[in-house]
Amino acid sequence: MDGWLLVSMGILIFFGLAAIYSVALSQEGSDFLTVKKQAIALVIGLVCFFLFSSTSYLFFRSQAFFLYLLGILFLIGVLWFGTTIRGTTGWFDLGWFSFQPIEYMKVALTAALAAYYQQQAKRFLGGKELFKSILLILPPVILALLQPDLGSALLLCGLWFTLSLFAGMRRKQVFLLLLTGIVVGVISWFFFLADYQQARILTFLDPSLDPLGQGYNVTQAMIGIGAGGWFGSGLGFGSQSQLKFIPESQTDFIFAVIAEELGFVGVCVLLGAFALLFYRLFVIARRCRDAFGQYLLLAIGSVLFLQFVVNVGMNIGLLPVTGLGLPLVSYGGSSLVFYLGMMGLVQSVAIRSHT
């Protein structure tokens, strides 16, 4: 296995568990249920990690279409039988554990797109090939929007766009797609986006429009980040997080908790772990001589990088709040399990490309 990739994963998971534990301290009479659930998810995720790493990644190429269809069925099923949390119908409540199908879809779509683009690796994408890839991405995006989960839908679109660029999309196609995106964005604003989604975008442009409502989260997160100083206030001693000024402190705004309690030094270690993770993905992809393996790593890297940038960006007020957590760090059993599964696929490529 790639040792440095394991190191970066371990650091990120440790930071996440420490921050989740710290937030649990602020809850009166806390039984640390969130910490226990995350620990259980970690055990399940590690099983998936070792299972995937011991399996040839080429197996997922042969099963990509099946995995994709299963993901579509999950996304359809959750609209009918799912549990609604904070306005999004995106979870299957299994009693002791909640399953979020969109997290599974991220893994399935990386395999499906990698398998599709592998066939186009030696030529420019024609209009027909690009249209087929759009048909592949459209169903999960529409189903995510119906939940509604705008953040995940945009993440899937970003994944597709990144892979399409590397697969050989022409400048004319890029221009037409950007133009189409602008038109769709305008139409969505007036006919499809919910009021709270519009409010998030407007508040991002001007947080003072609703300082005690939609703008409250970002404002408090930025105060927490600024209060961290060089070394932070210490785990369990952050005023913003412990006094519950930062909402969703274990998920969307866990970066602000880490910045406040571990300070600039802690944030540098966290960002350094992410930088090491992305660097090792790049090194393994260069070493891989199989087109499917390269596209698979590119897809996984794109999902991780886009979600990382969006989460940190919304914590510091550079991007609108989308509800996307910090990969391998934020609280969320489904997210942790499937991201560890992705890391298992990366290790599978690393093991079988090692010379």
Structural features, described:
This protein is mainly α. The chain has one domain. Helix content is 71%, strand content 3%. The protein has 14 helices and three strands. The protein has a three-stranded antiparallel beta sheet, covered by helices on one side. A hairpin with a 2-residue loop joins strand 1 and strand 2. Helix 1 packs antiparallel against helix 12 (254-287), helix 2 (33-54) packs parallel to helix 14 (333-353) and helix 5 (101-118) packs across helix 13 (291-315). It starts with a helix and ends with a helix. The model has no long low-confidence stretch (mean pLDDT 87).
Brief digest:
It is found in: Membrane. By secondary structure, the protein is mainly alpha-helical. The protein has 14 helices and three strands.
